[in-house]
Here is the input.
Amino acid sequence: MAISLAVIIVLGLGADYIFRKMKIPGLVGMLLVGILSGPYVFGFMRPEMMHVSGDFRKIALIVILLRAGFELHRDTLNRVGKAALTMSAIPAIFEIVGVMLVAPYFLHMTYLEAAILGTILGAVSPAVVVPLMINFMDRGRGSKKGIPTLILGASSVDDVFVIVIFSILMGMYGGEKVNILLKLAEIPVSITLGIIVGTIPGMILYWLFKKYDWIPPKRTMLVMGVAIFLTWIEEAVKPIPVASLLGVMAIGFIILEKSEPIAHIISQKLKKLWVFAELLLFVLVGAQVNIHVALKAGLAGTAVILTGLIFRSVGTYLSLLGTPYTFKERMYCVVAYIPKATVQAAIGAVPLAAGVASGDVILAVAVLSILITAPIGAFGIMFFGERILDHGEKSSFRFRELRDKLGLPHVGERIRDKDLDIVYKVIEEKEEWLNDPTAADKPGEKNPVPSILVRLWQEDTGAGLGKGKTKTVRYTGKGESFNDHFEIVYNW
Here is the structure.
């Protein structure tokens, strides 16, 4: 398995670099590496790696969903709540209907089989969409109207909705007596339970982080461990429906609501972890793609996929009627709802294994949909996002960029003065906009630049927190840097 990890790292990073140079999202290159190095083409991936591929992909998805949770501000969710609700169901319903109308004619299957195919195709891929939305949110793009948050939240619930419909149709095909209303009731139950099972550990983790002065890496590892445990709960309590991935996002949301500094610290550590998790996710998703099966779907399968996308696009646009978004912003949401990968790779083969007559055709079309929509959708999201999404006002990304550049400590961390050999504890940090006339385009013009004020306390057992000797330093990215005079002291 070690050699398979080497293939993922070396070839994945290489493809990411090359595709970014060509102004194409790096994940497209990673998917291509996965397809070529997977068992269906050159076979560089060892069988043992493919056996644990599902677990690795789940862990990688957990990393990005945690990051998503740590970016979900309540005010933004309130702004996009109604639109997110409609986008989580209506586009998928339209796509299922579109596939049902044309699949019997093009692929010679029954309407029930076409509906099953529609539910598989009807899920947007969080593996493709969420990382790209997080990228925009990190850079403050779309923050004014909350479009990345809208797409991120809606795409997560979209998968829950589609998988429930899929299970209903599979039960009907097998001749089982399925209570459709009871099954549909699983959707809100699953969402509610998912949020609850994420909220409770989120509150506990926040309490632990406030009570115990742990360094950021250990906080991040604990959050990751709890999030992975939540996905195990979903399997353990079946048939009770629990949307554990929503629970994972809820952990980040709760910690962010309770303490934005702590949430930001953990999010930054997850951002570094995502570099490796991203390679695992997209290369292994690509490795699941059987290109030979996809080719069997041919032009007929392509026609069904494109028809479904047209119907889906209409549904997405209708979902946004009555919202404050412009025509271009609505069309951007349409583009963002194109990519398919995760769900199609996960359940595309289920009908074939269950004995559905057209199972081989369904699998072929599901695989083909990944090959067509994942790269096109990813490129469209990045290309149009840079041109359509707003920049917001005084984006917090400027502060994050400054913090990463300077390597500043966070509240609660201890640092040592290299010159005086004194240990301080960081007790306050404040983000401020300063007017820098030297950076303005015209004389006298105001030009706000980000700065971070850090207040330090020289620990004294005889005084309370913050009392006694303190000092304040401010950094703007100009002049002396933090590392010129201080270093972070790592301990529990």
Summary: The longest helix spans residues 180-211.
